[in-house]
Amino acid sequence: MSADAPRIGSIAVLGLGKVGMLAARLLHEAGIVVIGHDTRSMGAREPFQVHVTDVSDPVALDEALGQVDAVLSCLPYRFNRQVADVAHRHAIHYFDLTEDVATTEHIRKLAVTADAIMAPQCGLAPGFVAIVAASQAERFDRCRSIRMRVGALPQNPTGLLGYAFNWSPEGVVNEYLNDCEVIEDGVRKFVSSMEWRENIYVGGALLEAFTTSGGLGTMCDTYAGEVENLDYKTMRYPGHMDLMNFFFHELLMRERRELAGEILTNAKPPVDADVVHVHVSSEGWIDGQLRRLEHVRSFFPCIIGGREVTAIAWTTAGSVAAVIEMVRNGVLPDRGELRQETIPLDAFLATTTGARFDIPPP
User: What pTM does this model have?
Assistant: First the structure.
């Protein structure tokens, strides 16, 4: 990157599925030169370059990343280590949406010697919810708890599961089966997923919340020794957790993750009418008084670029696009590890894309 060039003048977006394509469009609208890469040929014309690229080919990946200032990986998490390695070697900014803990740890190690930003976990959760939670925590003289809850759901659920796989089935299976890091009574530890069930009301609707993996990102590192209780849970319609525990554990589908994802997606395919509920709450002391702060929002499908997009797609793509805008604008550091909880909420909401999140509570 030239010292006189914008911090991010051009970016490669790898993986042009629903989220990747939307992120590319949002970044283009924000004035960044976008070069998209996918294994498929895109039928519709886009206002930016799109190349058919096999990113599993090291030579093709190296060529794609050698021509830009930054890369956004919207690929399945198993590709992200290789992408991050190449980005590190080219000294370009790296962003992804991964929830996978092991992948994130690899990227964080690269960040120690990086000459650009290494920013994993820039989606909705981990991602935006950590930005919200940190904005609450900094208002306390002493914060005793941070609770983050997110539910990506069909607006009109059917069947006992009450669910539709609008997100990667591979990612959902990992969330439901991998252990979850928490801080409980001041002790940092791992607990099982699909446990600690609680009831939550959002806009009058009853939901259940339970532990799932990956949603905290690096929050435990940041708040260990400072906050007594910190956890992340997924919200679903009532009854979902018991059925998924039966599916994965009594039927032993936890031993066949790929098949489990295929079965679940076949049974509950994506829907257009979805909703994303965000419920972030923190408790602590302000001027000697115990207080509770809440950030509760419900996001629905909307029109972007003349096309209707699902809530989970635009909240995920919008979150990472806003962060990239902030790096481009010089609001955030330009090298090393970027933790989501270090991103100021007000500055996030002030970006072209982040302003979409600034809606009133339900």
Answer: 0.92
